[in-house]
Specification:
Blueprint: E1 14-19, H1 33-50, H2 55-60, E2 67-74, E3 83-93, E4 97-106, E5 109-119, H3 134-137, H4 144-153
């Protein structure tokens, strides 16, 4: 599962674009609060794809990552037909857990932030170590601002 891809070929932050549909909003015209968590899931899936592996391949190899904690902070509402940008990155990693962080934006304006914590388990539901090679495949970063600062200094 480590692959042979050098770390520098993996983006630190994955970006997903999403347009809000009618089915996403409530009677007030705001995107329903639980739909933010659905977007976070889509962001995690795209993050893995950007790093050369799919959830389907991860699970076929016997690794499962249930959500054990989720948090969302709503700053401004998303509305019908808004074009959103979701940034996803890994902000913490231990031997048996991954924590993804998220920023949801509309034209650069922050709408929400969040994080999800995932335990790495086997088919029997027992904790297991993250797959070999994941330190290089999934770099840890506290905030996307680190990437911007690093890009400006080079």
């Amino acid at each position: 599962m480590g692959g042979g891809i050098p770390q520098e070929e993996f983006p630190v932050v994955s970006t997903l674009t999403y347009r809000v549909i009618y089915g996403d909003v409530d009677l007030m015209g705001f995107m329903y609060y639980a739909n933010y968590l659905r977007l976070f899931e889509a962001g995690r899936n795209e993050y893995c794809r950007d790093h050369g592996i799919t959830y389907k391949e991860i699970e076929a190899a016997g690794f499962f990552f249930p959500v054990v904690e989720a948090h969302a902070k709503y700053v401004r509402p998303a509305r019908y037909d808004d074009l959103l940008t979701l940034k996803t990155w890994i902000c913490r990693r231990t031997r048996v857990r991954l924590e993804f962080a998220f920023e949801l934006l509309r034209e650069g304006e922050l709408l929400a932030t969040g994080n999800t914590v995932h335990a790495c388990i086997n088919r029997e539901g027992r904790p297991q170590r993250l797959p070999a090679g994941w330190e290089a495949r999934f770099p840890v970063m506290e905030s996307p601002l680190q990437t911007a600062a690093a890009g400006e200094s080079t």
